[in-house]
Write a structure and sequence with these properties.
Elements lengths: L10 H11 L2 H5 L5 E2 L10 E6 L16 H6 L3 H21 L7 E3 L22 H16 L8 E7 L12 E2 L3 H17 L5 E4 L3 E2 L2 E2 L5 H9 L5 E2 L5 H7 L7 H11 L12 H12 L5 H17 L18 H14 L1 E5 L10 E5 L21 H6 L3 E5 L3 E7 L3 E4 L8 E3 L10 H6 L5 E6 L5 E5 L5 E4 L5 E5 L11 E5 L5 E5 L5 E4 L5 E4 L8 E4 L3 H10 L4 E7 L19 H13 L3 E6 L7 H6 L2 E5 L6 H9 L34 H4 L17 E3 L3 E5 L2 E10 L5 E11 L10 E10 L4 E9 L5 E3 L4 E3 L5 E6 L5 E7 L9 E2 L5 E2 L5 E3 L1 E5 L6 E5 L3 E10 L4 E9 L4 E7 L7 E7 L9 E6 L6 E9 L4 E9 L1
Helix pairs in contact: 1-11, 4-5, 4-12, 5-6, 8-9, 9-10, 12-18, 15-16
Protein name: Beta-glucosidase
InterPro entries: Actin-crosslinking, BXL, CBM6, Cellulose-bd_IV, Fn3-like, Galactose-bd-like_sf, GH, Glyco_hydro_3_C
EC number: 3.2.1.21
């Protein structure tokens, strides 16, 4: 069947031709994740949403590269681009076999800056620095999209906006004042859009400033303005229904869906392939006048534009439509990426290993590779043990506690070999004395391995069958799972102590306890008093056995870390930064037994390994490294490869160093390496090598709006250096709080022993700008600055002054336009909220004592009247104080009337006294609930 436009027409003509030919119902059918075919026009079915975060996922065996955090740790955009291109190859190969199952709209990369390492999805992001995040994201997206006139795949940036918590993620609101929005969040998203590397965006589950992210006016005001072509906006899975059901932002779905389309949402990911309800709500919105056909046309144009750019309507298929999966070239690339992501955190000379004959590999991650929620199915696995065993003789000890479980008076817990329900079996021993443990250990099916994944999460595995304890039919416990996994993890348990000091097992997923019925079968019970107390024998046995094995080797390699599906994953944040307790116990026992101990951390997030940093000779880290992890690790351990990775996140000494997980205002909270004033365990950018390097004095020149920094790096050691020369700047004076250091660029150098090379790093003067809330624009402030050059944000080797042209930020003009209260310079006890459902932000008191401050307000000869646009759920008072929020003189008192509607803002006025000259002003709220959208003054 002929297409409505000719194949050689311009893309925009093709889109217009299709729009003109489609009926209204056919257009509506294109607004769902599963776009309906229109056979009469030659439109095939189309599906958005193929996961491709670090390789093709969810569709079967495909090359698995290091997690996104690991890819970023390479600090190598070209390598990341090549991984993206290889992932596109495999996506196209699967698409050729199954076009419906493997769509070419890929949902990657994740560009949320990694503000807090406790975020459950930390492994999915790239860096806490927004500039570095944008750089790596653009590289990966470019690899996915390709460089030709047609897109190979259509990359989608996730998740817009302010999304770094899983706890109550659909109902929590992320406060993003203007400077945090413009200086921290948006710079991670905009580069890939401006360069045309990404062509779609997915909003996040959370609210931003009290408004659901899926309804954000920033979609049109900022994102589409940055994209050179039509931008497709796809919802996150099941997020549209949240607008009514969880977020209660609208009374019904037609109203909510109409608002979403008007705000810029083009594709609804709702109810899987069942489109009827979603499309019905859109039709209802049209019938009720909440939408016009022009709104539908705009969304459909975005959807069709991506399909045109994928070459769907070209006369001949694009040569880029061919591809292959898990090729030798992709395997080699997976090994290269894994090798270059490994980061040396500490080394007192033990590494690289030399003259080693026997290595003890120890730890829960020593002989396993784990998939995360967004990884592909591993086509094969090279574990740490296997990679090291290919070099030298190895002995292995998992280090998991080997335990038995028994009840008081009823025998031992046994897992039948056929995977049937766990039950109690009499062992013939009377009572539960210490000697009975040996009897229970000889009972078939009575021995379990207890694996500690941190945060109190344990998994129980039958030592006999290797299968994990799982929730079976009707809440019975069975031993049939290959490991913790799937969307609902039902294989993890807490070991809690009851009032009598006995152990109670609690399933983490449901919070239900384990009890034993009259049939002696173990099952989950609802009432706490139905729980059965257990005796757990064998705790600590893993550490003892690990120490014994380690003592027989020249070197001990302890491989520790997280399970990507447990205690830190989508839907679950971490509560702390601690290494799992049992794994820490194993590490300490091994270190005592063998001083030549290396700690290898494999994790999707930082750990506070303070004891290890003081006592273990060498520490390596990598994210979960994919199928070639073992080979890559061995290459680095034995010195065949230089450790090339660098941290893209600060490693803190304790979670106490972090702001509240839900505090997104990194400026006032002093979050991330940009503002952190403490002493980190390992700073942003940290990563050691096997050789020594020396830095010369940097030269800095400014020419034509461009800053160029050059510094000579000399290799004074015996090996070739893989150096990442990092350039930071610091503004020494400002009218507002500015970063203590900010990454501006880096250069990777390979320097031969005894040689030297010059690193050259350039950046634009405009990159030094901050967002001026007095005039709502970026400004390079007139101020002294420094350039720092070094190996990390905490290892500065040299510095130089930086002089660039700038402008003074003037005081706020008290008598100009009304100021938005959300543009405060500092605040305490407030939250941001919407002024209307569609747009505008206000400041609302969230505590009985709250304030928002504005520095440097020019009141001239004095102000006679102040006007606030306000809202409150009860009558309350807002005071205007000068100079200090607590002790400063009160210049005005505003009475805020009660309103039934949180969007019913009204203007109130009050006489202003004693306010003249340039002063700091504070809106001080007395009692929670009052909100201020804007304020203005009238002259005396």
């Amino acid at each position: 069947m002929a297409h409505p436009v000719t194949p050689d027409s311009q893309d925009e003509q093709r889109v217009r031709g299709l729009l003109d030919a489609l009926t209204l119902d056919e257009k509506i059918g294109l607004l769902h994740q599963h776009q309906a075919p229109v056979e009469r026009l030659g439109l095939d079915a189309f599906r958005t949403g193929t996961e491709a975060l670090h390789g093709l996922a969810w569709l079967g065996p495909a090359t698995v590269y290091p997690q996104a955090l690991g890819l970023a740790a390479t600090w190598d955009p070209d390598l990341v681009r090549r991984v993206g291109a290889a992932t596109a190859d495999e996506t196209l190969a699967f698409h050729a076999r199954d076009p419906k199952g493997a769509g070419r709209n890929v949902w990657a990369p994740v560009v949320n800056p990694l503000r807090d390492p406790r975020w459950g999805r930390n492994e999915e992001g790239y860096a806490e620095d927004p500039w570095l995040t944008g750089l790596i994201a653009t590289a990966y997206a470019r690899g996915l999209a390709g460089d030709g006139p047609r897109l190979r795949t259509a990359p989608t940036l996730k998740h817009f906006l302010g999304y770094n918590n899983e706890t109550d993620r659909c109902t929590t609101s992320s406060d993003l004042p203007p400077r945090v929005l413009r200086e921290y969040e948006l710079p991670a998203f905009l580069p890939a859009l401006r360069e045309g590397a990404a062509v779609a965006v997915m909003p996040s589950y959370n609210l931003v400033n009290g408004r659901p992210a899926h309804l954000s006016p920033l979609i049109d005001e900022v994102l589409r303005d940055a994209a050179p072509d039509d931008l497709l906006v796809v919802s996150d899975a099941y997020a549209p229904a949240n607008l009514v059901e969880l977020q209660r932002f609208h009374p019904d779905l037609p109203t909510a869906y109409a608002h979403a389309i008007r705000a810029g949402l083009d594709s609804f990911t709702q109810d899987d392939e069942r489109t009827e309800a979603t499309l019905g709500h859109i039709r209802a919105a049209l019938d009720r006048g909440l939408l016009a056909e022009a709104d539908i046309d705009r969304a459909v144009r975005h959807a069709l534009s991506v399909r045109v750019r994928l070459g769907e309507f070209d006369a001949e298929p694009s040569p880029a439509a061919s591809g292959a999966a898990d090729t030798p070239e992709h395997r080699a690339l997976a090994r290269e990426a894994a090798t270059r992501s490994i980061t040396l955190l500490r080394n007192d000379g033990l590494l690289p290993l030399r003259d080693v004959r026997r290595v003890a590999v120890v730890g829960q991650l020593g002989d396993t590779l784990l998939e995360d929620w967004y990884s592909g199915t591993l086509p094969y696995k090279v574990t740490a043990r296997e990679g090291i065993a290919a070099r030298v003789e190895t002995v292995f000890c998992e280090g998991a506690d080997r335990i038995t479980l028994a009840t008081y008076g009823h025998g031992a817990v046994v897992a039948p070999a056929d995977g049937g329900p766990l039950r109690l079996v009499s062992t013939g021993a009377q009572g539960l004395h210490e000697g009975d443990a040996a009897v229970r250990a000889r009972t078939p099916g009575a021995v379990f391995d207890l694996l500690d994944w941190g945060g109190g999460a344990h998994a129980l595995r039958s030592a006999e069958t290797g299968r994990y304890v799982n929730e079976g039919p009707d809440g019975t416990l069975v031993c049939d799972a290959p490991g913790p996994g799937t969307w609902e993890v039902r294989q993890t348990f807490r070991l809690e102590e009851d009032a009598a000091g006995h152990t109670v097992l609690v399933q983490i997923h449901s919070g239900r306890r384990v009890g034993v019925g009259d049939d002696l079968v173990l099952r989950l019970v609802e009432a706490p008093d139905e729980a059965t107390p257990f005796l757990v024998d064998g705790l600590g046995s893993g550490a003892r056995e690990a120490a014994r094995v380690a003592s027989t080797a020249d070197v001990a390699i302890v491989v520790a870390g997280d399970h990507p599906m447990v205690n830190g994953r989508e839907t679950e944040d971490r509560a702390d930064l601690d290494l799992p307790e049992a794994q820490e116990r194993v590490l300490r026992a091994v270190r005592e037994a063998n001083p030549a101990t290396v700690l290898v951390l494999s994790s999707g997030y930082p750990f506070a390994v303070t004891w290890a940093d003081e006592h273990v000779p060498a520490i390596l880290w990598s994210a979960h490294g994919g199928q070639e992890y073992g080979h890559a690790l061995a290459d680095v351990l034995f010195g065949d490869a230089e450790p090339a990775g660098r941290l893209t996140q600060t490693w803190y000494r304790s979670a106490a160093d972090l702001p509240d997980l839900l505090d997104y205002d990194v400026i006032t909270a002093r979050g991330t390496y940009l503002y952190f004033e403490g002493d980190p365990l390992y700073p942003f950018g940290h990563g050691l090598g096997y050789t020594s390097v020396e830095y010369g004095e940097p030269s800095v020149r400014v020419d034509g709006g461009r800053v160029t920094v050059e510094v000579e790096v000399a290799n004074s050691g015996p090996r070739t250096a893989e150096e990442v020369v990092q350039v930071y700047t610091r503004q020494l004076e400002s009218s507002v709080r500015v970063p203590l250091r900010a990454l501006r660029g880096f250069a990777r150098l390979s320097v031969e022993p005894g040689g030297s090379r010059t690193a050259v790093v350039g950046f634009d003067v405009d990159d030094l700008a901050l967002w001026d809330t007095t005039r709502d624009r970026f400004v390079v402030e007139e101020a002294p600055r420094e350039v720092f050059v070094g190996r990390s944000a905490g290892d500065v080797r040299a510095s130089a002054p930086l002089e660039v042209p700038g402008e003074a930020i003037p005081p706020r003009d008290a008598f100009g336009r009304a100021w938005g209260a959300a543009g405060y310079d500092d605040a305490r006890g407030v939250r941001l909220c919407p002024v209307t459902r569609e747009r505008g932000d206000a400041v609302r008191a969230a505590a009985d004592t709250a304030w928002a401050g504005f520095r440097g307000v020019d009141l001239g000869m004095g102000a006679a009247e102040g006007r606030l646009v306000v809202n409150a759920d009860r009558e309350c008072v807002v005071r205007l104080r000068l100079d200090d929020p607590e002790e400063g003189p009160v210049a005005a008192v505003f009475t805020v009337p009660a309103a039934d509607d949180p969007f019913a803002f009204t203007e109130v006025g009050a006489r202003v006294e004693g306010a003249s000259g340039v002063r700091d002003l504070y809106l001080v709220f007395e009692g929670a609930g009052a909100a201020v959208a804007s304020f203005a003054f009238g002259p005396a």
